[in-house]
């Protein structure tokens, strides 16, 4: 499965802030395999049969590597693909996706109830809002993912609850709500 290859490629490389450490030839671009995996994992996930192995990869990705993935998209200048890719991933996991409305009270209807952890779908549902709200900031600098965008993310969101404490030393935190 190509989607498993993408997750396996991203796992060892998306581990800490500042992906410049792994960029090739002193350029500000991640390695080609990471670039491909970052751009197309969701497309391949949507085309794959949802197995327990894929769910495990998705859980690891959403709960550990999501912000690093956003950083990689910023480095390659392809944040828009993140929004559409997340839409593909959510469509692969749910019957009726609620994407782009940033309604955190919306309930998603799962194709296979109980198979995909709620934490995964909540994080994947928050991520498009994060990308949309902070696209300008993220396109300026990949490190704004942690130092500016995350601290400005509403504390009630799953993405902030999952990642806020991991990067709290990087910037001042404010209490805000999504402007919908």
Overall description:
The chain is mainly alpha-helical and 180 residues long. The protein has one domain (2-170). The chain has helices at 2-13, 32-46, 52-76, 79-93, 118-140, 144-152, 158-163. The longest helix is centred in the middle third of the chain and has 25 residues, at 52-76. It is globular, with a radius of gyration of 15 Å.
What would you say about this model in short?
58% of the residues lie in helices and 0% in strands. It is an all-alpha fold and 180 residues long.
The helix content, as a percent range, equals 55-70%
Please tell me the overall pLDDT: 79
N-to-C order of helices and strands: HHHHHHH
**Largest sheet, if any?**
none
Tags for this model:
mainly alpha; 7 helices; 180 residues
Topology at a glance:
Blueprint: H1 2-13, H2 32-46, H3 52-76, H4 79-93, H5 118-140, H6 144-152, H7 158-163
Helix pairs in contact: 1-2, 1-3, 2-3, 2-4, 3-5, 4-5, 5-6
